[in-house]
Design a protein that fits this description.
The structure is a single chain. Helices cover about 60% and strands about 15% of the residues. By secondary structure, the protein is an alpha+beta fold. The chain has one domain. A hairpin with a 5-residue loop joins strand 5 and strand 6. The longest helix has 28 residues. It starts with 8 loop residues before the first helix and ends with a helix. The mean pLDDT is about 85.
Amino acid sequence: MTSLGSFENSDFENMASNFNNFVNGVATKQMVMNSLNEAVALVMSGVKERTPVDTGALRRNWSSSGVRYSGSFASVDISNNLHYAPYLEYGHRLRNGGYYPGVFMLTNTLNDVDKVFEKILEKNFNKFMKGTGLE
């Protein structure tokens, strides 16, 4: 007869509890929230770095709302409350008929973070799985 080893029942109960939390969405929601917060930090640092500086006001006025949930949908608002931010982002016409091209500081930053967001989620998922004993 072969021996399969031994385990403590409390270890199994702990693993089952962690799995139950994952299935019920408690841990999943926290994992997604951690991933979004990490992505927001990358967006904020990237957009500030890409924002052109004249007086520094535009760079200082970037803000984020924090993660909000509505049902199963999570969202974060990234904004700049200076009236000329969209004109600098997307470009605008000049009075003399010329055109000032957009800088796309937020658009390009969001595209860059989008490329690494799956890796951020994967890292946080693996960290969660190690914590549950389900790896």
